[in-house]
Amino acid sequence: MDDIKRMDELIRILDEASRAYYQTGTEIMPNHEYDALYDELLALEEKTGMVRADSPTVKVGYEVMSELPKERHAAPMLSLDKTKDVDALAGFLAGHEGVLSWKMDGLTVVLTYENHELLKAVTRGNGEVGEVITPNAKTFLNVPKKIPFSGRLILRGEAVIRYDDFDVVNASLPEGEEKYKNPRNLCSGSVRQLNSAVTAARRVRFYAFALISAEEDGSEKEFTLVTDQFDWLAKQGFDVVEHYKVTSDTVPDQVKYFAGAIKENPVPSDGLVLTLNDIAYGRSLGRTAKFPRNAIAFKWADETAETTLREIFWSPSRTGRINPVAVFDPVELEGTTVTRASVHNVSIVEQLKLGIGDTIRVYKANMIIPQIAENLTGSGKTPIPDTCPICGAKTQIREENSARELYCPSAECPIKHLKAFALFVSRDALNVDGLSEATLEKLIGCGALHTPDDLFHLKDTQKERVIALEGIGEKSFDNLTAAIEAARETTPAALLYGLGIAGIGPANAKVLCRAFGQDLLAIADAKEEDLAAVSGIGPVLAASVRAYMSDEENLALLKRLLAEVHFPQVEESAGEQTQVSGKTFVITGSLNSFENRKQLVDYIESLGGKVSGSVSANTDYLINNDTTSSSSKNKKAAQLGVPVISEEEFLALAKTGAGPA
User: Do domains 414-486 and 492-564 have the same CATH topology?
Assistant: First the structure.
C-alpha cells in the first residue's frame, strides 16, 4: 500500500474510532491503539508533506450527537502531545520543574461555579462543543454542592467510576444481560444520561486536574504554580488528581512509582500527564494547532501475548476484496479480551506461514484491531479459498502495491450489493434513518432493490412485496418510506459520497463539490487533470472519479438520482478579490490567529485560494510563523524561490490585496 492510500485508510479508521468514542461513548479500540495509529499517520504526513483537511491531526474529536443540550466552550479543549519514552518525558522539562499526575480514563467535564454554587457542567464533547450535564454532575458523589469562593470559578476534571463501583454495577445486572466492558464506557454512558437518577445510581466521582479561571469582584485570582492551583482547589472541597512535583532528574523514579501503583489505583488510568509547574512560563510557550506546549502525556508500552490460532475466516467486502481474519484463543491485552486479528491480505498469510493450531504472538499496535507479531510454529497450512464464501464464484488473486489480495470478481455477489446500499443510506451519505443492513438484505433478496434509485419508488411499486417480508409490517413500511422521503433533501457532497467511488470519503466529496460549484454533472464531465488539480484530490483519486464517471451505467444512475433528490439553495458569498485568489499555499508549523489548520484552509479556500500539502514549483506562498526556521519545507521553499510568510503577513495579503513587504 502506498503512503497516500495508507494515510486515507488511517484517517478512515481513526475517524470511525472518534465517531464511536465521541458520539456514543463506545470504545472500539483501546486508547493506546488509537495513539499508535495516530502516530503512524503523523509520521506519514511528515514524510509526504501532505495533510488532509479531514485528518485527525488537525481536528480535535468528533461532533457530539445526543439529545442533551449543546454549548460551545469559551476556549478549545485541546488534546495533549504524547510519548512512550521516559527520557523524552524528562527532556520535555528542559530544566524546569514539572507536575506529574495520573491521566485518568473517564470523561472530561468542565464545571462552573458562581456565588458559591455549581452553576453549570459541560462535557468535553469534541473539544469545541460539549453537552450540558448540570443535573447529572450534581449527583456526582464528591462534587461540592457549595464552595467557599464566591466569585466565578471554572475548572476541568475527569468524571470516573472507580473499579470497585464498576464491579458493583456489573454484579447488579440481571443474569444473561451483557456486562459493561470497562469503567470508562460505563462512566461515559452514566454521565450523559437524560435521567440524572441513573447517573446517581452509578456512583460517578470527579477529580479536578486544571483550574481555568477564578474571578472575583472583576479581578482574576493569580497563581504562580500549578501546584498552588491544586492546593487552592483542594481547599474549595474538590478531590484533586494525585500529583507530584518533579524535575528532569526525578521523572524516571516518579514514573516507576506510578507504574507500581497502577494495580492498586482505584481510579482507571491510561497513562500520566506532565505539566510545567510555572504557569506564566507554560503560557508563554503557546500552543500548536492541536496541542498546548505546557504539558505532555505519557503512555505505557504495548503488551504482547502468546495464543493458539484456531481459524482463518475470509470476510468479503463491498469492493470484492476478501479479507483474512485470524481467530485465536482469548488473551488479555491492555485490559481487554482479544480473540481475533486482521491479517489484511494473502501475502501476510503466506509470510507468517499461518496454520491452524500454530502458536502465535499477538499485540495491539499500529492497526485498529490486534495484529499477529510473529508465528512461533510456522506450519503454513492455511489454504487460500478458491471460491467466494458468499456467492461461490471462483476467486482471483491480484497484485496490489506489492501485496497479493484475494477478490471475488462476480458483479452479482450479494455482499457487494448489500455493502453498496449500506453506504448509500449511511449517515454521511443519504442518511436514511432506521434502514439497517438486515432490512436492506431483505429488500435486495426479495427483488425490491436493484439500484439505489429504486429506494425512492418502494412506496409506489413495491409495497405489497415488502410488507409481506418477515419483520416488516405496514407500519414499519410507512416509517421506512417516510425516512426515504426525508432523505430526498440532501447535499451534492452527500450524494457524491453515497455513490461509493473508491477513495472518495465525505471530506473529499465536499472538496470536489466546492471546487465544481456544487455541480455533480460538472464533476462527471471533468477531465482527469482538472480533478487532480483540486487541492486534496491528486492523481489517484482523480483517476478513481474519472473511471467511475466514464462508466455509462454509473453516469445514468447519477442522472436518475439527481432527478429524485433536491439540494437546498446555499448562497455562497463571492467576497472581494484579493491576492489570495488563484494562489496556492502550503501551511506548516503552529498557528496563532486560527484555532487549527483546517480553519485556515477553509479561510484560504473561501477567498479563492488553494492549499497544498507540499512545497513545489506551483506553490505561491509557504505560511510559517517561524520564517527563519531550518525546517524541510522552509529549505525547499528557499531552493524554489517560494516566499515564506508569517500568519500576520498572510492576513495582510488577504485583507489588503497587497503582497507582504
Answer: yes
Count of alpha carbons within 13 angstroms of residue 330, beta-carbon side: 4
CB 648 within 8 A of CB 594: no
Q: What CATH architecture does domain 72-298 belong to?
A: 2-Layer Sandwich (3.30)
CATH class of 3-59: mainly alpha
* Catalytic member of 47, 59, 82, 103: 103
Determine which helix (DSSP H) or strand (DSSP E) holds 12, and give its type and residue range. Answer: helix 3-19
pTM of this structure: 0.46
SS3 458: helix
What does 327-393 look like in DSSP terms, one character per residue?
EEEEEEETTEEEEEEE--SHHHHHHHT--TT-EEEEE--SSSS-EEEEESS-----PPPSB-TTT-P
Examine the residue annotation and report whether 103 is marked as an active-site residue of this protein.
yes
**Using CA atoms, how far apart are residues 419 and 321, in angstroms rounded to an integer?**
12
List the CATH code of the domain at 304-407.
2.40.50.140
Report the helix count and the strand count for the chain, using DSSP H and E: 25, 23
Q: For domain 584-656, give the fold.
A: Rossmann fold (3.40.50)
Residues in the chain: 661
Q: What angle do CA 579, 585, 589 make, to 5 degrees?
A: 125
Q: Report how far residue 111's alpha carbon sits from residue 374's, in angstroms, rounded to the nearest whole number.
A: 48
pLDDT tens column, 301-358: 666 789 999 999 887 776 778 888 899 999 887 667 888 887 878 888 988 999 999 9
Cβ count within 10 A of residue 300 = 17
Tens-place pLDDT, residues 240-297: 999 999 999 999 999 988 888 877 788 888 889 999 999 999 999 988 767 889 999 9
Residue 230 has which C-alpha cell?
Answer: 491544586
The CATH code that applies to domain 414-486 is 1.10.150.20
Report the candidate in 7, 78, 13, 2 with the shortest Cα–Cα distance to residue 367.
Answer: 13
Residue with cell 457530539: 64
